[in-house]
Automatic annotation (TrEMBL):
<feature type="transmembrane region" description="Helical">
    <location>
        <begin position="63"/>
        <end position="85"/>
    </location>
</feature>
<dbReference type="GO" id="GO:0008374">
    <property type="term" value="F:O-acyltransferase activity"/>
</dbReference>
<dbReference type="Pfam" id="PF03982">
    <property type="entry name" value="DAGAT"/>
</dbReference>
<dbReference type="GO" id="GO:0006629">
    <property type="term" value="P:lipid metabolic process"/>
</dbReference>
<dbReference type="InterPro" id="IPR007130">
    <property type="entry name" value="DAGAT"/>
</dbReference>
<keyword id="KW-0443">Lipid metabolism</keyword>
<keyword id="KW-0812">Transmembrane</keyword>
<keyword id="KW-0256">Endoplasmic reticulum</keyword>
<keyword id="KW-0444">Lipid biosynthesis</keyword>
<dbReference type="GO" id="GO:0005789">
    <property type="term" value="C:endoplasmic reticulum membrane"/>
</dbReference>
<keyword id="KW-0808">Transferase</keyword>
<keyword id="KW-0472">Membrane</keyword>
<comment type="similarity">
    <text>Belongs to the diacylglycerol acyltransferase family.</text>
</comment>
<keyword id="KW-1133">Transmembrane helix</keyword>
<keyword id="KW-0012">Acyltransferase</keyword>
<protein>
    <recommendedName>
        <fullName>Acyltransferase</fullName>
        <ecNumber>2.3.1.-</ecNumber>
    </recommendedName>
</protein>
């Protein structure tokens, strides 16, 4: 009996010693610094954003289709009924949620790159505006961060101005994803949606349009700034019809976030991209960024490169219900000159050299 008690005491002492040793090892291990925690929060905020834009719509659609063949089919039926009832809402200003725009996650998203907004001129709340956003880049990070989230201080810099970013109308046909987009203040890049914001929503509206679109994303790569703008004049006609001022903006560093495989003009891959872009409205780019665990590995996350979005001087536009082609061309030329001026005055401040030029196609 004494032998058994001694053995138990020895095992208990050994266990206590093991626990004490483990605690000492744990306490001696280096804890993550505040900087490390901040870096991981920034990485996770960008990860959720990329996954939301690339997968949320498709996954939600597949899930609702799957539920149709299960006992949970009423969920799909009810959501289908809701979409039918709510079909025109994106075209009528959407359904923005201020709390989502001020979500703390967007501050970590902003600091990952970081993204900065620069104001050069005031915007009066008594007017409406069409903001041209350049360049398109791969995922329009600068436009999203500045005109959708409140993390860069757009509301404080331009008091009384409500920004709305436009995107492909097809995105608003995807379940759940459409709610996500509208909650951030996005609307379809259609005449009806833009016209509603500029004519039936009062004044103080700023509709941001990424004018180059999918075609411009095909030439996106570091060190090259090519804009598809020469024949893009629909936004000027819309501005004239509603008397909205034209405001150029340029996101320096947008093309440095990803690496893209650029196919030569005339190649079969380039032809496929262009045909796909004309049919579907977006181009299937072959690109890569950094990995999740390492900057050196390849993945789908953007590289951490500074983005500075400079909002230029407004071009005052008269209200003409049916502008002539000559009038549209004249104000389009004025807009291009204002954009070139903005680019040349700021390029050396934000990472470009004096010899870098803006190519407009």
């Amino acid at each position: 009996m004494k032998t058994i008690i001694a053995a138990c005491s020895q095992n208990l002492s050994g266990s206590r010693a093991s626990i004490q040793t483990a605690l000492r090892t744990l306490l001696a291990a280096p804890w993550p610094s505040q900087r490390d925690v901040r870096s991981w929060l920034q990485l996770l905020s960008v990860l959720q954003w990329v996954l939301s834009f690339l997968l949320l719509g498709t996954v939600s659609l597949l899930l609702l289709i799957y539920l149709v063949f299960t006992s949970f089919w009423p969920i799909s039926a009810l959501y289908l009924a809701w979409i039918i009832f709510d079909w025109d809402t994106p075209e009528k200003g959407g359904r923005r949620l201020p709390c989502l725009r001020q979500w703390p996650v967007w501050r970590h998203f902003r600091d990952y790159f970081p993204v900065k907004l620069v104001k050069t001129h005031d915007l009066s709340p008594s007017h409406n505006y069409i903001i041209g956003s350049h360049p398109h880049g791969i995922l329009c990070v600068g436009a999203f961060c500045n005109f959708v989230t409140g993390s860069t201080g757009f509301g404080e810099m331009f008091p009384g101005i409500r920004p709305s970013l436009t995107t492909l109308a097809g995105n608003f046909r995807l379940p759940v994803f459409r709610e996500y987009l509208m909650s951030g203040g996005l609307c379809p890049v259609t005449r009806r949606a833009i016209g509603y914001l500029l004519s039936k929503n009062g004044t103080g509206n700023a509709v941001a349009i990424v004018i180059g679109g999918a075609a411009e994303s095909l030439s996106c790569r570091p060190g090259v700034t090519t804009l598809i703008l020469k024949n893009r004049k629909g936004f000027v006609r819309m501005a004239l019809q509603h008397g909205a001022c034209l405001v150029p903006s340029f996101s320096f560093g947008e093309n440095d976030l990803f690496r893209q495989v650029v196919f030569e003009e005339g190649s079969w891959m380039r032809s496929i991209q262009q045909r796909f872009q004309k049919m579907m409205g977006f181009a299937p780019c072959v690109f890569y960024g950094r990995g999740l665990t390492s900057v050196r590995s390849r993945g789908f996350l953007p590289y951490a490169r500074p983005i500075t979005t400079v909002v230029g001087e407004p071009v005052t536009v008269p209200k003409i219900e049916d502008p002539s082609r000559e009038t549209v061309d004249m104000y389009h030329e004025m807009y291009v000159r204002s954009l070139l001026k903005l680019f040349n005055e700021n390029k050396t401040k934000y990472g470009l050299s004096e010899t870098d030029e803006l190519h407009i196609l």
